[in-house]
Amino acid sequence: MTEPDIVRRTVIVDDHELLRAGTRGILEDAEGFSVVGEAADAESARQVVANTLPDLVIADIRLPTVNGIDLARQLVDDHPGLVVVILSAYDDEHYVRAAMAAGVSGYLLKTMPSHELVASLRNACAGVSRLTGVPRGRGEKDPVGPAPGAGEQLTARESEVVRLVARGMSNKAIAQHLSISPRTVEGHLNRVFDKLGILSRTELVHYTLAGTLFVREPEPDPEPEPEPEIDGSGPAR
Length: 237
Prior knowledge:
The chain is of the alpha/beta class. The protein contains 9 helices and 5 strands.
């Protein structure tokens, strides 16, 4: 199918019915989206997603009981390939970093014009991380890359996580590969974002694959100790 013919099945998660209706109206007026479900909290959102198997979930960051970032983390882990975008009233950089580390594909503000919302959702579905409306040093301009030598600030474990992100692995897959928890992976990514002055996984992958970011190679495993020789006359000494 050509791009205009792609219809992205969408679930909207917001505890305000009026905001859900407004977002639904914007998407129904746009090409390429079909709203297949709505939810007012994380528990019902997980059920709706399991029942409808959407391509895209748009979630508010402030939800009853479980916040949108924790919901996004659960959905991304449970449904590989699902695109989750946060639509928030908060432009706090801490929220942005936490959301990106959790694996969301975009962080958008509710104050943005409807045409920008639609364009940003399309970009997120196409794999282009979006931070529209979020204050940052470079804004949405072409990235200039981390400062020379910035990658040398990363620890060996942080470098290992970066390499696995660049391979396209999810936090859950990275955690399993490294025998750590997904939350530990997020913690490493948050520190990487802070050290490099970036906000998204997409930027991280771009700089890594482009060779802009030096990432140290893992330390080789130590040589195993030689086995004691056994002469057959009795237990090894």
